[in-house]
Specification:
The chain is mainly α. The chain is 78% helix and 0% strand. The protein has helices spanning 2-7, 12-24, 28-40, 46-59, 63-76, 85-93, 98-111, 116-128, 132-145, 150-163, 166-183, 186-204.
Length: 207
């Protein structure tokens, strides 16, 4: 690919695919340069470039830049509700910006008013903002709409754990893991398993 660029430095696709290769090899800084150049040269679909730029910034630990780009993508093309998950995770887990997460969840609910995932995202954002009552309301609605939504069980488990309802929290973590495994959602499954084991160990040790 580098040789191809030497032969034609104006070919956007060559920069884009070299960026993919470099990112896969863990060379995020170099990948970022390639994706930026691919964008300048008009690589299409443009959304692919923007997604790779956001991921590269995340790889480099530039979380504010990554979040801003993820949010732009979510607000510009909300056709797939899953586009809201990554920026919400960054806002909640890394930047401590629950208000930003709530903005994203509300946008998801506007664009997908009947989706169980929209209620899950609203519940997740409410939990991050400390409103446990609203969080439980949204998450229970999500599970009525989709009784196998693993993410909602995970989030409800976290709310219940925070409130000290240990037995119910453990049950929800178990369900989250079970349904995540059914659909191959490794991230939810691993997180639910870790939270279950951590809480169970704390209970067993008398904490």
């Amino acid at each position: 690919l580098t040789k191809a660029i030497d032969l034609d430095s104006n070919h956007s696709a060559t920069y884009f695919f070299r960026g993919l290769a470099r990112r896969k090899l863990g060379r995020a800084s170099e990948a970022l340069i390639d994706f930026t150049q691919a964008g300048k040269l008009g690589f299409k679909p443009e959304i692919y470039v923007r997604q790779q730029l956001t991921d590269s910034y995340f790889d480099l630990g530039e979380l504010d830049k990554s979040f801003s780009l993820y949010k732009e993508i979510a607000f510009s093309d909300s056709s797939d509700i899953r586009v809201f998950i990554r920026p919400m995770a960054i806002a909640i887990n890394h930047l401590n910006k629950p208000a930003e997460a709530l903005d994203l969840a509300r946008k998801a609910a506007v664009e997908h008013p009947d989706a169980a995932m929209a209620e899950n995202l609203l519940g997740w954002a409410a939990f991050a903002g400390g409103d446990y009552g609203a969080a439980k309301d949204h998450l229970n609605i999500a599970l009525k709409k989709d009784p196998e939504l693993s993410a909602a069980y995970l989030n409800l488990g976290m709310v219940l754990e925070k409130e000290g309802t240990v037995s119910a929290a453990l049950t929800n973590y178990e369900k989250a893991k079970l349904f995540a495994e059914d659909i191959g959602d490794k991230e939810i499954g691993v997180t639910a398993d870790l939270r279950y084991n951590g809480l169970k160990d704390a209970v067993d040790s008398g904490m």
